[in-house]
Specification:
It is a single chain. It contains six helices and seven strands; from the N terminus they run ααααββαββαβββ. Helix content is 29%, strand content 19%. α2 runs antiparallel to α3, α2 runs parallel beside α4 and α3 packs antiparallel against α4. It is an alpha+beta fold. The longest helix is centred in the N-terminal third of the chain and has 20 residues. A hairpin with a 7-residue loop joins β1 and β2. The strands form two sheets. The protein has a four-stranded mixed beta sheet with strand order 2-1-7-6, with helices on both faces. A three-stranded antiparallel beta sheet has the order 3-4-5, covered by helices on one side.
Length: 264
């Protein structure tokens, strides 16, 4: 429990996509290899048959080879994601784990969309599937039958693009503008733009760069949520971002995206 509480209140790191055709360098390749190694360390050979574990190790080694051979940062990310997808797809016999999830809109100077919720999922469940399970359970029996939007699939290339926001504005404050935190003034202007729906917060709302990014235990992966396995007591934060594909929530990334230099 101490691990979960500490992680929930800690500052988040972030990572997201690379600009196309940026030439790969040894630093980006090294970071991708380190991330792949960290992902592999989450799996335990005891949960696999001998053949299954051999397949996982082969997928890992091939991933390292493909990352080394990548000529652009885009190819580095593709190789990393491909290896991560291959590893998580291998059959295993794990039990169940409990993870904590939130959906946040703090960057809008507002509260949680979904406050911390514990959910029990199969060991090594994909982060994408765990999110869907959590939202389905939270809104079960309500009129909101589909409380989320995404691209890709839960099994491949999953990107969260919208979440039902239960704290909708009333008629009394329907004209109220969202005010960004002070540190974002120089990048977005003081006030946000429009949102497409008053019942959802979605990618593209408020600014052209807005999106959702996710962290696991304060690290934002460079891989899709459909490739990240869930382990016991993981804390997964899905955070709404309005600037720099996660830069405004402290993005740490393989490539060089715009960064927030001054926090007033």
């Amino acid at each position: 429990m101490k691990k979960i509480v500490t992680t929930i209140i800690a500052a988040a790191l972030a990572a997201h996509m690379l600009p196309a055709f940026a030439l790969a360098d040894s630093a980006s390749q090294s970071r991708a290899k380190n991330e792949l190694t960290e992902l592999k360390s989450l799996y335990d050979s005891i949960d696999y048959t001998d053949e299954g574990w051999a397949d996982l190790e082969q997928a890992y080694e091939q991933g390292l080879t493909d990352i080394s051979a990548a000529s652009t940062d885009e190819d580095v990310l593709a190789a990393l994601n491909s290896a991560a997808e291959e590893m998580i797809s291998i059959d295993h016999r794990g039990g169940s784990v409990k993870v904590c999830m939130t959906v946040e809109k703090f960057v809008l100077n507002e509260r949680f969309i979904v406050e911390p919720i514990f959910v029990t999922v199969p060991k090594y469940e994909r982060a994408s599937t765990a999110l869907i399970q959590m939202l389905d359970e939270k809104y079960y029996g309500t009129s909101k039958t589909t409380p989320y939007k995404y691209t890709g699939t839960p099994e491949s290339g999953f990107t969260l693009t919208g979440v039902y926001d239960p704290y909708v504005q009333t008629e009394d404050d329907s004209d109220k503008q969202i005010e960004f935190p002070l540190y974002l003034w120089d990048y977005t202007g003081r006030y946000a733009g429009d949102r497409a729906s008053m019942s959802f917060i979605s990618a593209g709302d408020f600014t052209d760069e807005s999106c959702y990014v996710f962290s696991v235990n304060n690290k934002f992966p460079n891989v899709s949520a459909s490739t990240v396995p869930m382990c016991d007591e993981d804390v997964v934060r899905w955070q709404f971002s309005v600037y720099g594909n996660g830069a405004d929530v402290g993005a740490g990334k393989i490539n060089s995206l715009p960064s927030i230099e001054t926090f007033a």
